[in-house]
Amino acid sequence: MNNELHELLYYYNEEGYEGYDLNEVQLLGKKDFDRVEQLKKILHHEDRYIAYQAMLILLAWSIPEGFELLDRFIAEKWDEKESFEPHRLYGEDNVYDIITNALYISTFNGKSEQELYPYIKQFLHLYDDRFFESHLKDFLLKKDCGPLLKEIEQALQTALENQRYYQASQLFPLLVHYDKNLFNLYIGIFRPLIIQDSRIMYSIEEAEKIADTLI
How far apart are CA 49 and CA 55, in angstroms? Predict the structure, then answer.
């Protein structure tokens, strides 16, 4: 990667602090017009990973061209052709989770969660056989996603069927957050699964805390 591309994707300067980090670029308050135009051009780069990184920035900044490439990314199943965000511990591609984080940032730049529902629904549809670490869960919990309750529950059930037990359990607190009556329905399912993955206990404890606050 040449220096020009590197600075375009990673260089940030906010409140007198300088550095190189794509995540910080996504969070920049001031969006330079020339930089936006250059990022739009990179969306057509022959290296899909570079195009993908430009897309993450433009998504976070609520630039329409970023969403256009996201539509292509999903429709053409880029993630099945190469790995974009291999997880440091588990090796699975965490790409849709990272994209969700960019969508979350976009809600602070003019996008409403309702506008993003179609993407979140698609990601929930993929939840049973793709890896999601935490960003999708955070989006669903921090934003008003009550209208997606059926999709969340379906994603949990299909993840269970595909033996992604911990990933399924991450959605348990969300179900309780939007409908406390679902706690009793699923607690009996997840408790026996702790033997399969001890991390499920964290999800149960979170669901219990949410249920307690809703009493």
Answer: 10
Q: Is the pLDDT assigned to residue 55 strictly greater than 90? A: yes
pLDDT at 2 over 90: no
pLDDT for residue 9: 95
pLDDT value at residue 160: 96
CA atoms within 13 A on the CB side of 116: 27
- Across the chain, what does the average pLDDT equal? 94
Q: Which of 55, 30, 31, 33 is nearest to 42 (CA)?
A: 55
Q: How many CB atoms lie within 10 A of CB 35?
A: 18
